[in-house]
Recover the amino acids of this structure.
């Protein structure tokens, strides 16, 4: 069961690659449509709106998910993976996927914020689970 934690890790990493793809596609599209020049991308703040949201979504994949990667690996290394951990891990990844989808489509801030908070609390629950696991060892 311990290695099952790697599947949500792989899914989260895959989400990051999907956002990279979306960003690249939107940036190339902006250049092709004349909304941007290749040199516009030397400074990230010059992205057109469509690629700017994808760029920000990509940055998000290196914030809270980093804590997820660390706690998932810690739980694996300490034999703390069980069905509850896997449920929390998958729920976190799903919440991040939905958050990213909202971010790169409608970009509705209140919906994004709620989804972020869901992921935040799921991630915190994994850290609490790790603490309890370590204290009971």
């Amino acid at each position: 069961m311990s290695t099952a934690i790697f599947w949500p890790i792989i899914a989260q990493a895959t989400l990051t690659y999907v956002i990279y793809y979306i960003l690249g596609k939107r940036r190339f599209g902006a250049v092709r449509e004349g909304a941007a020049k290749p040199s516009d991308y030397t400074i990230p703040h010059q992205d057109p709106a469509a690629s700017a949201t994808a760029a920000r979504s990509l940055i998000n994949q290196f914030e809270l998910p980093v804590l997820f990667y660390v706690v998932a690996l810690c739980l694996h290394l300490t034999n703390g993976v069980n069905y509850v951990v896997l449920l929390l891990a998958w729920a976190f990844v799903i919440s991040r996927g939905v958050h990213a989808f909202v971010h790169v489509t409608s970009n509705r801030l209140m919906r994004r914020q709620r989804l972020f908070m869901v992921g935040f609390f799921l991630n915190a629950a994994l850290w609490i689970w790790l603490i309890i696991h370590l204290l009971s060892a």
